[in-house]
Fold each of these.
Amino acid sequence: MSDHPKQLIGRALPVRAPLTILLALLAAAFLLLGLRGVLLPDGGAQSLGIAVVDAADLALMQTTGARNIGLALLAVALIVLDARRSLAALLLAAALISALDFLIVLNASGPANAVKHLGYVALLAVLGGATFRTGRPHT
């Protein structure tokens, strides 16, 4: 896509808008978390807040990493396609995933390791709501 101003007019998610930039950075963060989970599952498990006991735990962390890579790539595609409502739905679904992560980590490792997931829930829910309300009403 060209950065020519005429081609950017009418986008629901303008390329240079702060929200779009923040969403792209969030997608990059999810991609990096996913890559860490797949390539370095022990470190990914520690950042998630789960203790690794055996090789099966590492494999489970790799699937969590793959999930995050998929979410990141979908978010990038939705940003590029200017699919604002779909991106908002993805962010709200990611907030639900983070809420479930909170419950899983809370049960497995306790509140000290789980509480950060509540911050992710709030961030993703706020960004999902902001994305839903941004741009053209018919997108």
Note: The chain has one domain: 17-133.
Amino acid sequence: MHTPLQSPALRCAFLGAFAILAFATVQSFAGPVGEFDDESDIGNPQQAGSASYDPGAQQYAIAGGGANIWAGHDQFHFVWKKLNGDFLLRTRVQFTTESAEPHRKVGWQIRASLDPDAPYVDVAAHGNGEIALQFRPAAGTATRQFVLPVTHADVLQLERRGQTYIVSAARWGDTFTSNQISNVNLGDAVYVGLFVCAHNPTGKEQATFRDVRITKPVKVGFAPYHDYIGSNLEILDVQTGQLQLIYRSAEPFEAPNWTRDGTRLIYNVSGSGPNKGLLRRFDLAQRHPEPLDTGNATHNNNDHVLSFDGTRLGISNQGPESGNKSSVWILPSTGGKPRQMTPLTPSYFHSWSPDGKWLVYTGGRQENGTGPTVFSIYKMSSGGGEEIRLTRGNWLDDGPEFSPDGKYIYFNSTRSGLMQPYRSVSAVQYYGTHSADLRLFGHQTTWTSSCTTPDNVL
């Protein structure tokens, strides 16, 4: 840390000199790196930095020198792009050089300019594991910081909301620890990017950045299911946390499901365009979607599921055949003529039994045709026939899912006053309102379809 200059005259002269030298203390490089516009050495460090992007691994490798990002002058390597307005930044970072330097640092930075004394806000992961929110509120002033009560975090997030900046950090798999500052004016147009600083004038450090995401918020007043934006298709490795972005589309889509051979995904088109309600098969090798023929069932929602053997597909179609209310249909997984299974509506399909003999779904029904509609869990033979009610009560039961061994059905319910996941004691007989019939599966609050992996572990 440097002691700030106390004399106003000396201070002005010092900063004026830096304003003159700023043009010589920023070295820009060859141009775009991944989704960033450019890279620069800020403050003319002795050791020049470098950056590269591996599109296959979707990973940045950045090397940087520099004495520090501190006091009133910075030296580091910066991979940046220009952004306006609000946004959220996230990455997973790891040093790749062995070093005893405790305050080498890497992270995200938002900067008013590329001048070495520019105002900025960043989230910095230090070599000793310290995680800090650092900021310089005005050009040439001393850097300030708040150290977060978490160490050795590798997931770093920085969000801008107007003049408020929120820093969040966590070890992968843990919850975020956060802090924020307000009333820091960096201007609307800013330089945003990843940085590496050696904290050693003659040294150089290296780090990798993966799962890099730059997200712009939706417009003010955005109404879900009325307003739409495009969609990203990502694959998450649940063991390592590795994220891979494989497809972007201006046309929104939902609920990707793996085919059993692992070569394709099936999803439904949403939004308000002419393709709303159609299904697509996404080829993972070609990274391209193709139409899936569902016959006259062309008003599909996001409740569609493949059978365990992968030969049949259950869908929820809300077309004119069922009064524009959702009903359950089945068809070959490769496409073809569908068969309507549930004459009563609304019915939302969720799971096949492992042997393919049963369908389970959520149905909204009135008691004896009168009164309020109650959503409960039902099952039906995949060959057709009468539906069998599995739950009762004046609450919402939703998202039923067979366990891969066929012994249980998982589902969500508001019966506790919160939407929570439950598991039935038996998947073959009625289970209803009593605690002996059900087991609370965890204590978290959720609002999504219950789903287990094929190995019944997750």
Note: The CA atoms of residues 420 and 446 lie 6 Å apart.
Amino acid sequence: MPLARAAAYSALAAVVSGLCACAPPANVAGQALKSPTTTGEAFEGAQCSAVRPQTEPDLMAWDPGSRANLNRLRGAGVVAVRYEAVGCNVKLELLSHCIGTTSKYQFSPYSANQRKVAHNESELFAQLPIGAASLSADVKGGRALRTDYILAGQYALPPDATFRTTDLKGVDCARATHVVSAIYVGAFVMGAGESRQMDAKSTLFGSALGGSSSADVDVLSTEGDAEACSVAQREGTESNRCAVPLRIGLEALDAAASVSCPEGSTLQGNACAPAVAASPAAASALPAASAAPAVLPPPLASAPALPPAAVAEAPVAPRPAPAQAKPPPPKATPWYIQALLPSLDHDGDGVLDSRDQCPSDVETKNGFQDADGCPDQLPAEVAKFVGVIPGIEFDAGRSSLRPESTTTLDAAAKLFARYPDLRLRISVHTDNLGQAADNRALSGRRANALRDYLIDRAIDAGRVEARGAGQEEPIASNASEAGRAANRRVEFNLIQ
């Protein structure tokens, strides 16, 4: 018995020693901050594996040359990329010699004014994982990194477009993991400064006018014309001065994604847990980590399913039901390791167990209380303002609201004031009468008019996005007046 107890204490001491060795060095006040030379150094001590990678990643921390190349490639065809992560190193690589020619991007108006503020390495990785390593020095020593951006347009593939690896042509296609399904364009400014000042400033765009920095903001990067973006939002039109790629939507190709844990972590059950140094006896309780990079999961919006008729036409050979073998129970993690491991996300819903009020149940991603980690349903008063919203009418061919629309919009403003954590995307659709480009521009102006209406009634601008869908997403046939009336609609959707 004394020998067993001594072995347990030795294992505990080894675990504690290993965890302490991983702690990042302290920043000494007054010393110059050292720029990291490797990703591991940039995010030392950060739990990157606990952050779910973005399926619509932002590009403000990406290098300017890649942003310019993305704009060039979208004119040639469908853009292919390689998107993967190993630990804190998230890579987005444009494959210039791999282009899809079976579809093309279409412009539609899109309005959003937002900002991102990172006060530490973990927040920086969660908000701007692509290129974040080069900026990690700007969130140390009491400093914060802030990015203000304006979105004024979207270049997207048609809603019914699907893609397979065989649709791509070029010598780089064997390396492709995703195609770019949407490119959001606009203008941005990125700056760093004292944390409290960065939180308090109303906007950074003025800081970039006179040069590279102001008294309290170091402007790190700025691209695009904010004034031109404001005009493009208002008029629902394209602008070459407001065309910086700031965000992309990704659609995974049909090749199966490899699944493995990031560097520095091991697979424990269905979750990746940080690896710890332990004695040989304790190490035997932990599975081995895989060194292979983890290809990022596909975006939540997947390719549309086959219609029922198409499914019925495909004969399926009957096969015997597989035997339902009961899986062996998972091997328990020793208590001395379990007590020292950082918080994990055992149910895999993106909410860490330390903040998850329902650690065994998956969060319902519906834009409502998505941070508590619990399944839920929208309250009836909120559900009333999700989906197609009746009672909102515009003057024919214009973006001006008819007087009878104010009742519905005032009720919506009061509702969103009572739920300050909700974020809203407004989409306006048209029928197919007239030119498609004119309909897209008109729907953009109308969506922006609704957004302005809510902002004028004290709803924060960062909580409301506006999208002009034009005639591209009908829900009924445009061959009849009744169908065209159904297609002329306003939709509200909650976003995270």
Note: The first strand starts at residue 78 and ends at 86.
Amino acid sequence: MNAPNVNDAQNVNDAETAMGAETAMSAEKLLLADLEHFGEMFRWNEETGERRVSFLITLVTAILAALVALATSDPPPDAMKEIAAGALISVLVIGIITFLRMLQRDRVSKEYKRLQSDIRCM
């Protein structure tokens, strides 16, 4: 049986050092990938919220234009008050839902920003 020599111990030590460096590089790459992912998710979340608000503004404009067109038609419909009430209630409900969704979006955006900050501090 051969006795272990100094070169074998040095080779093991070099291998452990290389593995430690490789692990550190892997961790760094993983953190960079996470940072990029959270950045993309933050941007996607913000863009989605902006599209929701744009949709709401477009919808409100279209409904108001339709109501004005109905009110100015000759003769105005007999059920104009009911049509207007239904349309405005619909806009109110959609507006409240959009507002609540925007609050949720803001909470998620803050969390993405916090995660990005935590990764940058590492």
Note: Residues 39-121 form one domain.
